[in-house]
Amino acid sequence: MKRTALKIAIAVNIAMALVVPSAIAEDYKLGVSDRLKVKVQEWPDLTGEYTVAADGAISLPLIGNIDARGLRVNDLAGEISDRLQRRSDGAERPVAAVEILQYRPFFIVGDVQHPGQYPYRPGLTVLGAISIAGGYYRPEFGLLRLDRDMALAKGEMRALSLKRCRLLAREARLTAALAGRADLPFPPELADRKDDPDIVAIVEGERSVLDVENNTIRSEQAEFEKIKALYNSETESLRGQVNALARERDSTQEQLKQFRALSAKGLALAPTVFSMERSLAQIVNEQLNIETAIVKAQESIALAEHRLNERAQERRKADERDLQQTKDNIAEVRARIKTQGDLLMEAQISAPAEARARLAEKDRRSGFTLVRKNGETTREIAADETALVQPDDIIKVPVIRSEPYEASNMLSLSQAKAEKADR
């Protein structure tokens, strides 16, 4: 019944706050940050929206600054009309209208749903301000969310546990890859869950990844051996050609030596000697070309081996980097599991205890404080829910604090039971 009465009272105050009493609105004195709408039928250049500046003035075209602080809207409208009449050299006095589009704010802090600043409304009470801020802080709704929060926390714990298992399996696979192993043993940390289908699937997945990596390594090694054998075969063939050319060169050199001796005695023609010298030069040149081809084939073998080793080094560096990242992720997941465990304990023990303590409080509260400026000074005023609020007021709503005795006792009892079970 008390809660229903409070809801009715809040609804009534909201309705009263929305219906601005004309007498209070007309008596409202302007201040800094009030947003106004000025309309002068005969002077359309002046029609528009204006905000009272920090010095209390508004700046209008044609007539300049007007100190609006402390004026009522009717007084400001009259001042605008008077200035326009003086500017028009005694012509008929124009009619100006001023409307408040948005009042300067009030502030509310403490035990409300949404503390902060809100536009003021004439006739606003403390209870109306609380309703604008979303009402009193309602921890009792947390009781309705406890089951959901615990379910979410348990789900997060399960997800983190599964992620930890994946990371442990990945760590085992990377360790095996760096060690050059062809198989992946079941990780010791997961040995107690060998019969869990999810864990078995995770480990088998990592084994498949390791098999793919090993197959890639074997394929690259086989490709290198194939290239190496091809170039070695070519090299052997070229060496055979070099040997044949060497024998031909020796034979040609011997013949050239003999023909030179005959030519010196006039028994051989000079063109024949020249022809044999050209043949010898061609043989030597061809021999050099083949030896160059042999060097290139050997360089190709060395380059293929270098690329094979380079890929192996890149794989190793990537595996080492991934292993370090995996270890960091395992540490992070373990910390998150511990945090989720603490939050779950909080949801199961501490939060319900605090919520029950708050629900035991009376619905109607007291001890409100209005912090109000008066010129350069500030004073605090004790107030109740029906007190009128003024612009720039700070409303302090007292916070209800529950004693943590029950929750702490329950937590200590739970810890004692856990320690006893460990022993």
Protein architecture, described:
It is elongated and about 145 Å long. The longest helix has 90 residues, at 270-359. It is 61% helix and 13% strand. The strands form three sheets. A five-stranded mixed β-sheet has the order 7-6-10-8-9, with helices on one face. Helix 1 (2-18) packs across helix 4 (126-132), helix 6 packs antiparallel against helix 7 and helix 7 packs across helix 8 (405-422). Strand 1 (35-40) and strand 2 form a beta hairpin. The protein is α+β, with helices and mostly antiparallel strands and 423 residues long.
From the structure above, extract its key features:
wza like fold, 3 domains, 5-stranded mixed β-sheet, 8 helices, Ubiquitin-like (UB roll), disordered C terminus, 61% helix, 10 strands, 423 residues, 3-stranded antiparallel β-sheet, disordered N terminus, alpha+beta, single chain
Can you describe this structure in just a few lines?
This protein is of the alpha+beta class and 423 residues long.
Quick one: biggest sheet? Answer: 5 strands, mixed
Range of strand content: 5-15%
How many β-strands, per DSSP? Answer: 10
Distance between the termini: 51 Å
Number of domains: 3
Topology:
Layout: H1 2-18, H2 22-27, E1 35-40, E2 48-51, E3 57-60, E4 64-67, H3 73-87, E5 96-102, E6 105-110, E7 116-119, H4 126-132, H5 140-178, H6 197-264, H7 270-359, E8 368-374, E9 377-383, E10 394-397, H8 405-422
Parallel strand pairs: 6-10
Antiparallel strand pairs: 1-2, 1-5, 3-4, 6-7, 8-9, 8-10
